[in-house]
Predict the 3D structure of the following.
Amino acid sequence: MNQKTLLYRSDASRFIAFPFSKPDGRDAKTKSSRWSKVSSESSSSPTNDPDFSALPFDILTKIAAPFNFPNLLAASLVCRSWGDALRALREAMVLLRQGKQFKHGRGGVGRNLEKALVSFLKGAARGSTLAMVDAGLIYWERGQKEEAIALYQKAAALGDAAGQCNLGISYLNTQPLNHKEAVKWLHQASVGGHVRAQYQLALCLHQGLGVEQNLQEAVKWYLKAAEGGYVRAMYNASLCYTFGEGLSHSRRQARKWMKRAADRGHGKAQFEHGLALFSGNC
């Protein structure tokens, strides 16, 4: 069955967008940072380091809103002040876990999207951007796009890369289309290292959607996403090397990325790599 794609070109370009779907492995893409305990020093300390434990609670909770559980727990252990400030976000993590259990039917509970949504919304109300994104996904899948976008906007404003990516993709899928806003949020998520956002941004640059067409910049983001493990970006990087779009033609690099995409299950890449092997061009 043909899937609906986010972006397309009337000239039947081979560079197509990835359908809107769940940003799996979001937490896995975020490396756990190590927090060192802030020591309390007297005002006469020669280093005169700032006391971060004195951050206002509202500022601290905004900073920590996109944290995954390991980072949130580490931050909570810095000092009693931070532990108190981040209590609501720790509660949100419990609700987020419950929501995922209901959404996927895990942990001894049956699959129940309504209960999952309730848990995600409670987590979102406590400030977790991860819960905002998961609640937004359920709304999106149910066709409630305005509710989904509202949650993505909140998560994006708090610096959540998945929220920024989904917000950008949403602007490419809702009427009226807003390509400029899409590119703005996709770029922010891309700079933050979100590989699917990097791929979607590359497509916008390649096709001139919401931004002036720039093949060199598009290739840069294709390669970043490909190096980050995004299979469709690997395939498109191979095509760019094959046809010399945005960079110099290189059969060696084209073969390398085509094989990597094929090895990871990309159907078209498997077909084209197989043809190359059969014809002796590899």
Observations:
- Residues 87-104 form the longest helix (18 residues).
- Residues 11 and 246 are 19 Å apart (CA to CA).
- The chain has 15 helices and no strands.
- The radius of gyration is 22 Å.
